Amino acid sequence: MHLSPGSEAPSCRHGLFRSHWRFGTNSTILTYFVSPHMVIKNEEMRSLELSGQVGFNSLPHQVVRKLVSQGFCFNILCVGETGIGKSTLINTLFNTTFENEEADHYEREVKLRSQTYELQEHTVKLKLTIVHTVGFGDQINKDESCKPILDYIEAQFEKYLEEELKIKRSLSNYDDTRIHICLYFIAPTGHTLKSLDLVMMKNLDSKVNIIPIIAKADIMSKTDLGNLKKKIMTELQSYGVQIYQFPNEDEEVGEINSSLNARLPFAVVGSTEDVKIGNRMVKARSYPWGAVQVENEEHCDFVHLREMLLRVNMDDLREQTHSRHYELYRCCKLQEMGFKDTDPDSQSFSLQEMYEAKRREFFKELQHREESMRQMFVNKVKETEAELKEKEKELHERFEVLKRMHQEEKRNLEEKRRELEEEMNAFNRRKVAAETLMGQALQGCSQQPLKKEKDKKK
């Protein structure tokens, strides 16, 4: 653990500048007040010898006792294709069987499934959260495979930042769900990395600690496996993908971590099956030609992965998540909110003044937006009125055209009616004349026989 500057900016109270320092990753804050008129001289630190036992040498034991009583949390994100062996490897790492639903290859989108377990080894309690990426790489269109995973990681950062910015916060009891490590499972194809793997790891390297893993390494020979490791590391370096590097500054673990860095990416085999090899039972995978022992360094890198993940660098992974990835996210968010750091030589500012300035800026922007929306509304109303007038004009013109057409048709109909009446009158006259002629003809025919009879009588 170490002392590092906290996230809060110096503030002024009663003529004193207040600064905060954070102890490790805990929420303990050391506060000191310095007068702006106080002149601090840079003097060398003097070492003094104690004449007797004081007692502060028990401070590390007090810290350990407190941390053990509180317990620890560790969150693992497993990214890889369906059926590549993610669940089996996690079960093998923690020597237990976690509950996990089997996934198929027909998921329409990537879904993240989080499961939390309470584990205890001797007196140490561990709250373990495992996040599985269900359906990753199973879609035909893989453009949207990265977004759900990135959104989930940023959502956990956002929750922690919201807790930090609360007035009454309780970070010591906060359920930290930030991802501490991403185990990225690579298919043992013997070729190079897929484009999806490169894009995914490039998007993840600034948000989480990445450990690349070659899954099911027992299907490849040692020569092919060594060549694949070199290809993967070469591609990661050429594309600028930053994976987690085990720290080698500490003398106690520096040598171990240097050897672990040379073995990246880890080629692992997972199995929960106990197989009898000689006179002892070991975790292995049985084949007709023999057995692949999980904890045999000649067969795979499982032992080195467990050494790195659980026994040597678990605290460093937690520290890197907080001090590097979360701090990067936090800085970007606070800059978006308008906060900024002051130079050492510049005049300090108060949060109250910044709040008032941001409040005035917000109301000014709100007023500007309101005025803009009002003007937009007025313009929209004017445009609508103009459109309605134009449509009214078009309707009026169309009405006049239809009216003229109606009057024209009416005149035509009146003319046709007059013509028809005239034809009817002419027909009636001809009919009357014909009937008159016919009556005269009939009358003439009836008088001729009478005349003949009279002539005969004479």
UniProtKB/TrEMBL annotation:
The keyword Nucleotidyltransferase does not apply. Belongs to the TRAFAC class TrmE-Era-EngA-EngB-Septin-like GTPase superfamily. Septin GTPase family. Its main location: cytoplasm. Residues 70-336 form the Septin-type G domain. InterPro entries: G_SEPTIN_dom, P-loop_NTPase, Septin. It is found in: Cytoplasm, Cytoskeleton. Residues 374-437 form a coiled coil. One of its GO terms (cellular component) is cytoskeleton. This is Septin. GO terms for molecular function: GTP binding. The keyword Coiled coil applies. Pfam families: Septin. CDD domains: CDC_Septin. Keywords: Coiled coil, Cytoplasm, Cytoskeleton, GTP-binding, Nucleotide-binding. PROSITE patterns: G_SEPTIN.
